[in-house]
């Protein structure tokens, strides 16, 4: 077997090969969806006030800011004949995330829940970050939109099930969705337990059923890594923000406002729906917990629609271009969030979530398809980690200012956070117009020879 650089011309993969390499995202999204739909509920159950929610969420994006570029940097410099390049990180992240998912719903104090959010988010990022680079490693440019769209499908599918789990356990299995003050309802606890099992199982499916291409320069990279030392590697990871290619800089502005919008929704959807539509802020009341369960259904709907819409994205992008497809999708998300303000019937929220689902499907695929075609293959994980700065920085900003804005300008009325998120989606869409995307692969390696994967 001849080992050549993974940056050489890669063969097209079949349906099941792309399926297996993307399947782990089904489990990863179980973790994220349970976090997004239930953490504010857990915080409020443990005594958090509305204006405190955003700052309590700060642990999640701060963790991503620290973990993602470092993991991306070192996953580029990892190779094992048995485990490959990215798969060791998939496995370690899955083990840690599963532990965190089991511990989170057993928090007995607010500070414990915040610590568990930190642990859970760090663990998810360890396994998630290399998955983005995995598509660039394994697929030729002509298949990358399909690869990221397949990831979007599994993200959507996992999130549909995970988001709906508290409602399912309550309505299908008769579990309690209310609990005394300071206690997490059984329906929520068992949702996290099942999520932990699903996370581990799906990620390990990819670990054991996917082959990776062995890079011929990995020993040189490992020697450089050892010579620099861990702190030099960390420093280089964070300096990457000043070395981004032009297209990546342009997309970073789009990402910034897209993720500000998403984080606004994840933090404030539960208090917005329970107060604006169900008319209560009492986390021990039946109305509050019914509304919180319905938020899970809403999140399931937007993720489910995203899973289906993901398959349409390559077709639409071929006709409209990737950047215009992303613009239209982000506008749909803006309309979806703004429309929540005008809803009084909970069932109509599902219509609003269709627009959010369109945006979500595109956010998970179009930006990565665009930048993966202009990045050098031997630094794919590094730059994907740097790109994710513009996922976590807006989340940190949202966590830092949304509570202050709501308290001082909107009387702690949570629905206005969703309106701010809708406006951010529209701005992100407009910024797509400045993105240069020729939809053409950039060749970074010679010679062009077929490459053979190893297990």
How would you sum up this structure in a few lines?
The protein is mainly α and 455 residues long. The chain has 19 helices and no strands.
Written description of the protein model:
It is a single chain. It is built from 19 helices and no strands. Helix 4 runs antiparallel to helix 18 and helix 7 packs antiparallel against helix 12. The radius of gyration is 21 Å and the shape is globular. With about 450 residues, the protein is mainly alpha-helical. The N terminus and C terminus are likely disordered.
List keywords for this structure.
19 helices, 71% helix, 455 residues
Count of helical segments? 19
Query: For the terminal residues, how far apart are their CA atoms?
Result: 12 Å
Give the name of the CATH architecture: Up-down Bundle
The CATH superfamily turns out to be: MFS general substrate transporter like domains
Structural domains: how many: 1
- Which percent band covers the strand fraction? under 5%
**CATH-derived topology:** Growth Hormone, Chain: A
Task: Report the oligomer.
Answer: single chain
